Amino acid sequence: MPYVWFPHIPHFERKSMEVHKRFCTFNNYYHKVLTDYGGKVYQIPINLATINAFYGKSLTPFEAEKLLDAEIAKVGIQNPINLEEKAISLIGRPLYDAFIKGYTIKQWGTDPRRLPPYIIARIPLRYNYNVNYFDDAWQGIPRDGYNSIFNRMLDHPNVQVHLNTDYFSIRHLIPETCMVIYTGPVDRFFDCKHGKLGWRTVAFEKEVQHVTDFQGTAVMNYAEVSVPFTRIHEFRHYHEERKYPRGKTVIFREYSKELTADDDPYYPINTEADSVILTNI
Ligand SMILES: Cc1cc2nc3c(=O)[nH]c(=O)nc-3n(C[C@H](O)[C@H](O)[C@H](O)COP(=O)(O)OP(=O)(O)OC[C@H]3O[C@@H](n4cnc5c(N)ncnc54)[C@H](O)[C@@H]3O)c2cc1C
Known about the structure:
The chain contains nine helices and nine strands. The model has no long low-confidence stretch (mean pLDDT 91). The radius of gyration is 22 Å and the shape is globular. By secondary structure, it is of the alpha+beta class. The longest helix has 16 residues, at 93-108. The protein has helices at residues 14-21, 48-55, 61-75, 83-91, 93-108, 146-154, 167-170, 186-189, 272-280, and strands spanning 11-12, 33-37, 40-44, 138-139, 199-209, 219-222, 231-234, 249-258, 267-268. A seven-stranded mixed β-sheet has the order 3-2-6-7-8-5-9. A two-stranded antiparallel sheet has the order 1-4.
């Protein structure tokens, strides 16, 4: 398997946080995402600041809701038949065109009119200035990084680690009475006898920028199709408690792409064909 590096932001209900605390301490990072569209920067998920900046207004929550209700009524979609129609029926066409359309095309490599409506049950939409990306109150980044968590978890006499071992090459050696937690692609687990699921993966391009702070935040999304990557991560913002050098910062551009034989599958595409396969599994 290729070595892949991407940022992971733990966000928990309190209960699971307690389990993690056995293995690490967390810093105070609270996830926020911004998005670049049309040369301007907006808050995401769409909130009152996004709506006001986008429409150039200073609306109250009630006024913003009325404005979006009018946008939704303008298109009058009652029974959406694809993802695009569903999104427009939830937030209106202007916000869809700006913040959902291009990003979805890049993320899924597919025209949103070819994706089923049920992929988006809802679009997070806030009529207040809450800028938190996740709703979970418990968030943070492990202070010593992820390796230290796994080193502590695996440091137990009952744990054996076999690296570079394909589960399928040892499956026949595992007694049937053993409980197995398999974390690979679900279609492969069933030897693809119900069909192959569609998967997407991500690729990262690392760059050292010779400035102290490249983008002022950990994650900046790029909503337009004309920008080939989906987002830029700047790692110093995940660990505000650490001392970083001045005049130098690491960024990763993230690209969503089709899966090749060398890639790890990350996101199931979830087309209608995929959902038939999953139902049969
Ligand atoms: C780019 C990206 C960013 C994300 N960011 C966040 C985030 O910030 N916060 C969050 O909560 N979630 C995030 N997620 C989602 C989160 O990463 C996943 O939900 C989570 O990793 C799933 O855990 P898992 O153990 O099921 O699978 P994975 O983490 O995918 O682990 C599966 C493991 O199984 C191994 N494997 C697969 N097949 C085999 C095989 N045949 N034999 C042996 N080993 C095998 C793989 O190599 C891999 O190591 C993100 C996902 C992506 C793709």
